[in-house]
Amino acid sequence: MTIEAKTGEARGMDNEAMLDTAFLYGANAAYIEQLYAQYAEDPGSVPESWQRFFKGVADSPENATKAARGPEWQEPLKHQNGELVSAMDGNWAPDAKPAAKKAPQVGPTIAPADLAQQVQDSIRAIMMIRAYRMRGHLAAHLDPLNLLRIEDQPELDPKTYGFGPKDMDRRIYIDNVLGLEYATPRQMLDILKRTYCGTFAVEFMHISDPDEKSWLQQRIEGKDKEISFTPQGKRAILKKLVEA
Asked: In this predicted structure, what is the pLDDT of residue 98?
C-alpha cells in the first residue's frame, strides 16, 4: 500500500471518528455528562444505545458523577433541559410535564348537525333577502285601482329557500342585515314586503357606486324604517301635488 493510500485511509478513519462523536461538542456536552452520571448510578435508566456507548468510555463512573454535579460550592441547578431533550430522556421538569388530560372545554357545545343547520339557515336567509332587493319591485302594489294582476315571483317565496310554515318563527343569525342580528323568517318577510312590495317600488341593486347603494339601503331597510304619515301630513302632500 502506498503512503498516499495509507494517509487517505487514516484520514478517512479520523473523519469517521469525528462524525461519530460530533454530538459530544458544544451545548450537548453538559447534557451527555448528566446522562453518563445517571448511567453510572443505574445503567438501566438510560436507553440501550447510550448504554453501549458509555461502556466504551474510559472515565470512571465516580468521576463522571462528580463532573456532572459540578463544583461543591455551586448552587443546585434547576432543570434546564428543553422540550426536545426532555422528550428524549423522559425527565420533565415538574412544571413542564405534558398534560395527561385535555383541558375541558368551557361553555356550551353545539352538535355538528345543529351547527350545519344554523349555517344553512343563515345562507338561505341572506339569499332570500337579496332576492327581494333584486325583484321585490315586481310584486309592488302600484295600481291604486287594482286593475293589474301582480304576477307570482317564485324567487320571493320563502319555500324556495326551505322555509315552510313550521320554520317561520325559527331564530336565524343574519349579521345585522335588515338592521337585525337575529330574526325569524316571519320578521324578515314583514320588513322585506313592507320595504320592496308596498305601494311604491324601490330598485337600487343596479347602481354601480357602492356608497350610493349603501346610502339608499340604510335608509329604506330596517325594523324602524317604515314610512308613515299622519292624516294632516297626507293632506299637505296632496295639496302640494294639486298645486303642482
From this structure: 55
In 66-98, which positions are buried (b, 16+ CB within 10 angstroms) versus exposed (e)?
A: eebeeeeeeeeeeeebeeebbeebebeeeeeee
Question: Is the whole model's pTM more than 0.85, yes or no?
Answer: no
Q: Where in the chain is CATH 1.10.287.1150?
A: 112-243
- Provide the β-strand partners of residue 172: 183
Radius of gyration of the chain (CA): 41
Report H helices in 105-227.
112-135, 185-196, 210-220
| Cβ contact 129:192 at 8 Å | yes
Cell (9 digits) for 17:
471518528
- Compute CA distances 86 → 96, 97, 103, whole Å: 9, 9, 22
Indicate whether 132 pLDDT > 90: yes
Q: 162: which residues sit within 8 A by CB, 6+ positions away?
A: 120, 124
Query: Bigger pLDDT: 111 or 123?
Result: 123
Q: Which CATH superfamily is domain 112-243 in?
A: TPP helical domain (1.10.287.1150)
Say yes or no to pLDDT of 109 above 70. Answer: yes
